Amino acid sequence: MDVYMVTESHVRIILGLSLALVLFIASALAQDQTEAVDGAAVFKKRCSMCHGPEGKGFSANKTPNFTSSEWQKSISDAEINETVKNGKKGTPMQAFGSKLSEGEIKAVVAHVRSLGAEKK
Question: Cα Rg for the chain, rounded, in angstroms?
């Protein structure tokens, strides 16, 4: 009769795989939390004073109207992301790259895009 014996190397392999699994799960949970950032809340706190609570901008400040389909078509997500991170030279738009996390910036970009969605 063959008896399977657990050796020290088996224990090390099991512990190593267990650690890898824990790290993988922790990483997945952290990513879910980043994706759960409320873009509307970040926009309200950081952007609405210049861009208006509904994202329509203010002509006196020359801020864009995010609800305009023309504006939405004229700019890519990457350009919005870049502007939020690094600001826009020659305008009052300041850089938020050091003030917002990547997840918050992505959430703001998504929220800005949602402002241009057709209302039913």
Answer: 23
* Cα 53 to Cα 83: distance, rounded to the nearest angstrom: 19
Would you kindly state where each structural domain of the chain is located, as residue ranges?
Answer: 1-36, 38-120
| Architecture of the domain delimited by 38-120 | Orthogonal Bundle (1.10)
Tens digits of residue pLDDT in 45-103: 999 999 999 999 998 888 999 999 999 999 999 999 999 999 999 999 999 999 999 99
**Looking at the chain, how many residues does it have?**
120
Q: Is the pTM of this model over 0.70?
A: no
Map tokens 């901008």 to a residue.
57
Return the amino acid letter for 19: L
Cβ neighbors of 59 (< 8 A, separation 6 or more) are none
